[in-house]
Amino acid sequence: MPTCTMPTTILQHEPPEARIAAADWQAAEDALGRDGYAVLPALLTSAQCRELARSYTDEARFRSRIVMERYAFGRGEYKYFGYPLPDAVQGLRQSLYPRLAPIANRWHAAMRIEERFPATHDEFRDICHAAGQRRPTPLLLRYQVNDYCCLHQDLYGDHVFPFQVIFLLDEPGRDFEGGELLLAESNPKQPGRADVVPLRQGDAVVLAVNHKPVRSGRGYYRAHLRHGVSRLRKGERHTLGIIFHDAK
């Protein structure tokens, strides 16, 4: 499993921003390039996870609710946060983005994609808003028994940040069974493959949103990726999704 470790001096009571700063981002970049995802363990404490999961019932925090079955997305539901984002969600978005933006720029250069990303999320958000992508995209998802999510990509406009981050807010084997995070890669030069991404409560996984660069004898080409969630067999599963580009 591509997991990025942190020094043991980072304690559970320290804020997520400290754990983000302490993560091994070179190892994360290596895992993203190899596998299309990288696990960052224990970025949130169990108390922080519970608080975020409980906020699902606070309708004032959200701009919309999506019932997946209505749109053939799967079964279950999720809610998009509205602006202003909750402090915890805004803090994660602001802290993760500058760690990922340099990797995103290197990926775009390798894949010969013109767009480059600025150093701060505020600058990138302004670019999105100027292009009409003004609706916030961080979201909370809730899965109950027999719920699942079809393989998909989270693309919301012309400006797409190459990575998103998913936090698991409940504990597998205790709070739920099933509901594994799935990642499928479609490679034009190799057979397709799929991964089950193992996560514990509080772990984060960085995913490639759309495609990743793959080295060949003539440079790089693009392999496409999609992600989804397998059927939940028992309990309830909440996740927090941090998407960095806003939606039209």
TrEMBL record:
Pfam families for the chain: Oxygenase-NA
The protein's name in its UniProt record: Proline hydroxylase
Lineage summary: Bacteria, Pseudomonadati, Pseudomonadota, Betaproteobacteria, Burkholderiales
InterPro entries cross-referenced by the UniProt entry: DUF2086 (IPR018655)
